[in-house]
Amino acid sequence: MGDNWIILLFIAAGILFTVMSWYAAEKRRKALAEFAHANGFEFKSAPGDIHEKYEAFSPFGSGRNRRSANLIHGQRGEIRWEMFDYRYTTGSGKNKTSHRVGVVVAKVPLMLPRLRIRPEHIFDKLAAAVGFDDIDFESAEFSRKYHVKGDDRKTAYDLIHPQMIEYLLSKPAHDWQIGGSVILFQKSGHFSTAEMTDSMALISGFVERIPEYVRQDMGMRPAV
């Protein structure tokens, strides 16, 4: 009898967890739909494989069972926005891990260089000590705060000019992935609507500070 009660308890706990997870997911979908409507955007709870467009960026293209959900998308000014939840699986058996990622994508009317600007950490300093250095800037504070990697140092310096450095230093550190018409943020878990608003403002400020001569060099083109 005791074993039966334990089994029933586990079953009840599993059912409760499933119901609570479903309720939380529905609550989030409703909040995202309201956020999209308030901002003049569209919302799709099942956007298909939208993540496949971004396999050149991390963490896309890794793992298996890749799924996207809760897409918010729309145009504001010169930027087209796509914000969604993403998940994928790595490992197997006892080492199987499910990863959930929040994504904010800005598509801009430019062809930007491949560049990653992310917070500096201790392993970057160790790598630099043995010759694997990143792109350094005149601002020592910026170089301490951010690890910058790119295909072309000149275009990196053109894009991250002194005023841009000042702007980035005045804001919370983010992991910027840039390439072609895409500026992408991603974080473990998901973005709240408040974080989406902040991310949009941060990226918009970045785009506004791209100098005109850089825009001309990088070629204006419609965001798609």
Describe the structure in brief:
The chain is of the alpha+beta class and 224 residues long.
Can you walk through the features of this model?
The chain starts with a helix and ends in a 6-residue tail after the last helix. The radius of gyration is 21 Å and the shape is globular. Helix content is 40%, strand content 31%. The longest helix is centred in the N-terminal third of the chain and has 37 residues, at 2-38. The protein has one domain. Strands 1, 2, 3, 4, 5 and 6 form a 6-stranded antiparallel sheet that branches. It contains 7 helices and 6 strands. The protein has 224 residues and is of the alpha+beta class.
Strand content: 25-35%
SSE-based structural type:
alpha+beta
The helix-strand sequence is HEEEEHHEHHEHH
Distance between the termini: 63 Å
Helix content: 25-40%
Average pLDDT across residues? 85
Which ranges are low-confidence, i.e. pLDDT below 50, for 5 or more consecutive residues?
Answer: 124-132
Q: Please, how many helices?
A: 7
Alpha carbon gyration radius? 21 Å
Rough outline: globular
Number of domains: 1
Question: Major β-sheet, in short?
Answer: 6 strands, antiparallel
DSSP, total strands: 6
